Predict the 3D structure of the following.
Amino acid sequence: SPILTPWSQTPAHDRSTIDMNISYNQLNLLPACLPTPNPSSPNSISRFRADVTQLVESGNTHKHSDRCYKYYNANRGDKKICCMRMPRKLVPVSTIDPDTGHISMRRSDPWINNFNEYLISACHSNMDIKFIWTGSDAKALVYYITDYVTKMSLSFHDTFSLVQKSITSLQNSNNQLDNENIIEKSRKLVLRCYNTLASQQELSGVQVASNLMNWNDHYTTHKFQGRY
């Protein structure tokens, strides 16, 4: 039988804050996987600050990668600039331009994305937050969200390549009978193309979980009467 140590027999709510922090560090867990500090726990303010610092240093600090230069083309003579706009300009003091109304928030580190300490502690994820206060910014935000959620997972040329592959595969299929009518051949062609494209579509975790749980794939605010 396993040997029970005094540590394993101690209830979690009786352990000190220091002991809890040591136990999490020994597990080598990512800061994003750690629980959000309890506001009613002892030393909650210091634990909250430490939690925010860990999250920012581990997940909200930018590090250059190939993705930063995905639009860079040396043949065009492009200047190699990070598409994430990093590093960013340091701002010693937060200011508001009285003429334009532009707000410049204080920035002491050029590599850290904008964040809200309460949101990042609650969500335990990275963020790049921005205050939307003008009509032009709001329109740009709507365009960005709409473009992001409607983008295709397959590029245009990849789609055509997969369709061409399906057509060639169907033509070279040995089990296709010559005496099949045009309707049956068309049905098989459409089905083959659909299966090929569907197998290459990216599915999010939410989509997979909803399907496994037999949840609806849409929501409506009203109930509609069917015509038939």
User: Anything to note?
Assistant: The chain has three domains: 1-61+113-133, 62-111, 156-212.
